Amino acid sequence: MVVAVVVTVTVVIVVVIVVVVVVVVVVEVVVVVVVVVVVVVVVVVVVMFVHTVDRCPVESACTFQGQGGAASALPGALALLTRGRGGR
Length: 88
Known about the structure:
77% of the residues lie in helices and 0% in strands. It has 88 residues and is mostly helical. It has a domain at 40-55 and 66-82. The termini are far apart. The model has no long low-confidence stretch (mean pLDDT 77). This is ABC transmembrane type-1 domain-containing protein. The chain crosses the membrane at residues 5-25, 31-50.
């Protein structure tokens, strides 16, 4: 009888630990996904802002030479991101 109680308590403790670990892992994955989505949205907004601010009369003629720095790298970075995820 005592052995059955000890085994039952041990199983309950193990199940509780496993459930807590699974919940923590799921929460961490959700947080990582939210952070990645926020970063991608920010990059897209910045790229759209750069396109809007750009004064080129024809968009295909824009070379981003006047922007410099990170602004010139953003379109290429966005293209790499979208290409890697099955985008255009």
